[in-house]
Amino acid sequence: MTDDLKRVVVWKNLLLDGRDYCALWYTAEGWLLKGTVVGILEDRRPMLANYEIHCDDNWRTHQVRVGRTIGSNTKTLALNVESRGVWRSSGQELPGVRGCDDVDLALTPATNTLPIRRLNLQVGGSQSVIAAWVKFPELTVQPLSQRYTRLGKDTYRYESNTGFSAEIVVDDFGLVTTYPGGWERIAAL
Question: Which are the contacts of 172, defined by CB distance < 8 A and separation ≥ 6?
Fold first, then answer.
């Protein structure tokens, strides 16, 4: 089987005053989200970040690669998830995120696709998840409790235990088209 490109999107990142180019692929191993973010941090430093998220056919995360550059400072993070829900970075277990099914990269709405597709909620359905949240620019990983509620065919309410909530609209692949205050899709093919 050859890799099959399903969709390419560009989001305007309202939080980082930047852009996020993301491609969704179907591969022999499952699903791949691969993207590049260019943005400006709160302190006005420019940042470049690249990400790859490999999932199985059921949208369970099994590998994450993230790199970010701020000037000459480059930092990378590689996460591997074992079938028992054990997350590892550089071979070391991250016990704080044991059992998480999804990764949530704070700089892209691409990772909302993972629980949306994996949970496959019916309209009116709601479910809580705990994601391995990767914060930028530090690339630290911590658990983040989240709730997804399907409000309509393509609309979900996202809530996190940080007190944040938003109604997001997605396309037929579960990729965000509108995320109020965060991102808006400006191109797709």
Answer: 154
- Please give the DSSP secondary-structure letter assigned to residue 152: S
Q: For 132-185, what is each residue's pLDDT tens digit?
A: 999 999 999 999 999 999 999 999 999 999 899 999 999 999 999 999 999 999
Decide if 77 contacts 50 (C-beta within 8 A).
no
Matching residue, tokens 């000459």: 72
Element (H, E) at 55: strand 46-55
DSSP state of 121: P
> Of the candidates 20, 45, 42, 23, which has an alpha carbon nearest to the alpha carbon of residue 32?
23
Exposed, middle or buried: residue 100 (CB in 10 Å: 0-12, 13-18, 19+)? buried
Q: What pTM did the predictor assign?
A: 0.94
Return the amino acid letter for 62. H
Which residues, other chains included, contact 120 with Cβ-Cβ below 8 Å and sequence gap of 6+?
none
Cis preceding-peptide flag for 109 (omega within 30 of 0): no
Q: Which of 109, 99, 104, 180 is nearest to 146 (CA)?
A: 104
